[in-house]
Amino acid sequence: MTSDGTEFDGADDSAADRSDSTSAAAGSTGSGVDDTAATDAGRPESGGTDAEGALTDADDEDGERTARRRRRRTATTTARPSPTAQPLRRLRVVRASDLRAAGSFLGSGVRNLLARPLTSFHLIVSITVVLVGLGLMMVLSASAVEGYAKDGSAYGMFTTQVMFVALGLVLFYLSARISVRTLQKLSVPILLVSIGLLIAVLVPGIGVSGGGAQRWVSIAGLTFQPSEMAKLALCVWGAAVLSTRDPKTASVRSLMLPLMPVFVAIALLVLAERNQSTTMILGMIVATLLWFGGMRARYFAAFIAAFIAIGAVLAMMWAYRAARVFSFLNGNKDILGSGYQSNQAKYALADGGLLGKGLGMGTAKWNYLPNAHNDFIFAVIGEEFGLVGGLSVLGLYVLLGYAGLRIARRSVDPFLRLMSATITVLFLMQAFINIGYVVGLLPVTGIQLPILSYGGSSALMMLAMLGMLANAARHEPEAVIALSGPAPKGLAGLLRLPKPVAYRAPSQRAARRRPAPAPVAPSRRPAPPRAWDGRGRAATNSPARGARRTGESSSGEIHYRSRGARPSRSWQESRSSAPRERSRRSGRGEWESGRR
Question: How crowded is residue 226: how many other Cβ atoms within 10 Å of its Cβ?
Answer without folding.
Answer: 25
